Amino acid sequence: MDARLTQFTTVPSSPTFAEAAVRLRGFTRSFGENTIISGLDLEIGAGEFVVLLGRSGSGKTTLLRTLAGLDPVDGQDVTVPSSRAVVFQDARLLPWKKVWRNVALGLKGANARDAAQDALQEVGLGHRLEAWPLTLSGGEAQRVALARALVREPGLLLLDEPFAALDALTRLRMHELVLSLWRRHRPAVMMVTHDVDEAIALADRVILLDGGKIVAQERITAARGAERAGIAPPLRQRLLSALGGVVEERPADVVALHAGARP
Ligand SMILES: Nc1ncnc2c1ncn2[C@@H]1O[C@H](COP(=O)(O)OP(=O)(O)OP(=O)(O)O)[C@@H](O)[C@H]1O
């Protein structure tokens, strides 16, 4: 783990989540004269699914990179779990390594292949162990990326617009998959998206970031699926107006299509 980040500690959190996986206090990040994130306080509960929405340039990826340990925190008060994994918009697989070796990358011990196989089975790709990454579809490649992330049982899973490049139907299937993986492994999740409907379909809590500050939050307690689809229109309206209409509203009825999903 990155020595600049504080070790995981148990701290009080919201009543819903007994302990915090992530805690930032007064976090600030600047590039030269340009302050991108300023005095940010954030807690994410263990096992909580948080979605971060915000206009382009609001600091979402900067925050995600900080939590991933990819950027320096310069001794600031940043607490994250020791094990974290990131899935980006592109799967970032090594094309010269077979699928299972991509998943097993960095795993030690004789069980690495078995662990990779189990993870690939979980994402429905148990039959593609020996495939080369370039023979996979975009959705399959993202499933491999999810398997690679989860095989390490991270305490924090960071998702940076992981489904943005996929077609609508594949994206819906990925939502179901990510929810079932999350239910099984229960990492804290912070997912960045531009898609308000995706946020509503997946999140325990939606956070709106603007100018590097949290400008609004919505905790969603309705069960995922039909119950959530019922509350989606006013919630969508609230989120969009909090964002000042800066996030593109799409006609996609993602939440409605999730109505058949398990809670
Ligand atoms: N390495 C860097 N050097 C200088 N400026 C940077 C760097 N990384 C990000 N920035 C600036 O920080 C601001 C926030 O960028 P960031 O990528 O976090 O935004 P974002 O909300 O993720 O945007 P998008 O939705 O377009 O991905 C932008 O103005 C960007 O130009």
UniProtKB/TrEMBL annotation:
Organism: Novosphingobium barchaimii LL02
InterPro entries: AAA+_ATPase, ABC_transporter-like_ATP-bd, ABC_transporter-like_CS, ABC_transporter_ATP-bind, P-loop_NTPase
Signal sequence residues: none
Superkingdom in the source lineage: Bacteria
SUPFAM superfamilies associated with the record: P-loop containing nucleoside triphosphate hydrolases
Domain ABC transporter: 22-236
GO molecular function: ATP binding; ATP hydrolysis activity
Name by which UniProt lists this protein: Sulfonate ABC transporter ATP-binding protein
Key words of the record: ATP-binding, Cell membrane, Membrane, Nucleotide-binding, Translocase, Transport
Record carries keyword Nucleotide-binding: yes
Similarity comment text for this entry: Belongs to the ABC transporter superfamily.
